[in-house]
Amino acid sequence: MKIFLQMLTMGIMLLSFGKGLRAGMLEDVMNGKATVIDMTYPLNEKNAYWPVGPYTPFKYEVIANLRKDKVFSGKYSTPEHLGTHIDAPNHFEEGMPSVDQIPFEQLIGTAVVIDVTDKAGKDADYTLSPSDILLWEKDNGQIPEGAIVLLNTGWSKRWHDYDNYKNFDKKGSMHFPGYSKESTSFLVTKRNIKGIGIDTLSGDCGISTDFIVHHTINSARKFILENVANLDKLPPKGATLIIAPIKIEGGSGGQCRIWAILPK
Ligand SMILES: [Zn+2]
User: Fold this and answer.
1) Which of 22, 49, 88, 192 is deepest in the core (most CB within 10 A)?
2) Of 81, 85, 91, 214, which one is the catalytic site residue?
3) Annotation marks residue 91 as catalytic
């Protein structure tokens, strides 16, 4: 019985691995037969971070340089939730995996890219609706098992203008698009996804105060990728995502490198 269960678990693992990473895909990258798109913004002091309370900008300092010290070396400090980063399941829910505990199998998957740039362009508070998801499925087929869903809101155009990216109003509320409670519930109950991502500061829209999208995703043991770059360079389907988060023991998230692999 024990051996049967082990084999079953291995089978499921291989299945979920297979959904994300086709055999030979990395060889295609090495042989120039696949394109790699870096979905990560470079870290620097202008990087977007959650602009509330004790959060601080990224800071980098040179502590040794080649001319004087014969070696170049630096040190840095950063909130976990700054720049292109992952929200681990423990970010909003107790007892859930921390960033170092997210299994590798969950960090690779087929990218599903839903484009709401037109709607978000007209309404900065726009949130993804289940009908947007169904519209994507009408054109592309059902969201595959183990997909990582990415929302392209067009917000990356504002990345280099941080005030515009946060988009505070005079009363102190931010305005940027996000997922909705309904679309997120749909993704975790009616589809089998590994996580979600977005090209803004948060999975929830800027005016959210209950962070229901974070709660819904995290309580389902799933992650959120925030400030994802280059979403406009991905097709609606066909790319494979590889996410490599920093391994902070017990951390609530952290900077991650995200690559999308596209067959040529
Ligand atoms: Zn975050």
Assistant:
1) 88
2) 91
3) yes
